[in-house]
Write a structure and sequence with these properties.
By secondary structure, this protein is an alpha/beta fold. The protein has one domain: Rossmann fold. The chain has seven helices and seven strands, in the order βαβαβαβαβαββαα. Strands 3-2-1-4-5-6-7 form a seven-stranded mixed β-sheet, sandwiched between helices. The protein is globular. The chain binds glycinamide ribonucleotide. Glycinamide ribonucleotide binds next to helix 1, strand 5 and helix 6.
Length: 207
């Protein structure tokens, strides 16, 4: 019997194109994982529509319905646990998760960010890269810790900045790479090729 596939819980606030790329990779048989639930903090998120089209269970948990961030996060955790989630995937989730949330899924929360971290964390990473004048930027998949876009780096891909790039054109080229990188990270986590503490395998084998 083959191993059961990795159960993902995806958190998304908006468009959900990374979520769609993950679904496409799973549907194509490229990724031994399944999305057990999609949770959004925004009832209008396009990601919810995408989930419905794939018959994936969804939950909308609205921050305004909870007295504080911890109570909100505990509600999200409850939904994820009820769905049997093993790996939490932040895909355009525009909230900072609390230490309480992270303690419920220790080392099992990953994120994608549209820059080569540790450069340009936070909002508008592509705008920050253009403003700084870097010639190369890209995207990063990392394990989430208590900081903003910090935590062990799992995979990165570089994207050249062109002379005439606008925030839109650069974001679009980075997004193409995000859509490859995130499914690749999940595929390799599912296979045990990437371990979630971010240390290179050879270091783990020696140490
Ligand atoms: C993506 O570019 C993702 O890297 C970014 O938001 C976008 C979501 O797009 N995330 C961050 O900036 C997190 N700091 P999507 O909803 O179409 O996947």
């Amino acid at each position: 019997m083959s191993e059961p596939s990795l159960r993902l819980g995806v958190l998304a606030s908006g468009r959900g194109s990374n979520f769609a790329a993950i679904l496409d990779a799973i549907d194509a048989g490229d990724c031994d994982a399944e999305v057990a639930i999609l949770v959004s903090d925004r009832p209008t998120a396009q990601a919810l529509v995408r989930a419905a089209a794939h018959a994936i269970p969804t939950a909308v948990v609205r921050p305004a319905d909870y007295p504080d961030r911890v109570q909100y996060d505990l509600q999200v955790v409850e939904r994820l646990r009820a769905a049997g989630v093993q790996l939490v995937v932040l895909a355009g989730y525009m909230r900072i998760v609390t230490p309480t949330f992270l303690a419920c899924f220790p080392g099992r929360v990953i994120n994608i960010h549209p820059a080569l971290l540790p450069a340009f964390p936070g909002l508008h990473a592509q705008r920050q890269a253009l403003a700084y004048g870097v010639k190369v930027t890209g995207c990063t998949v990392h394990v989430v810790d208590e900081g903003v876009d910090s935590g062990p780096i799992l995979l990165q891909r570089a994207v050249a900045v062109e002379e005439d790039d606008t925030e839109e054109s650069l974001s679009a080229r980075i997004l193409v790479e995000e859509h490859k990188l995130y499914p690749e990270a999940i595929r390799r986590i599912a296979r045990g090729e990437i371990l979630l503490d971010g240390r290179p395998r050879r270091a783990q084998e020696v140490g």
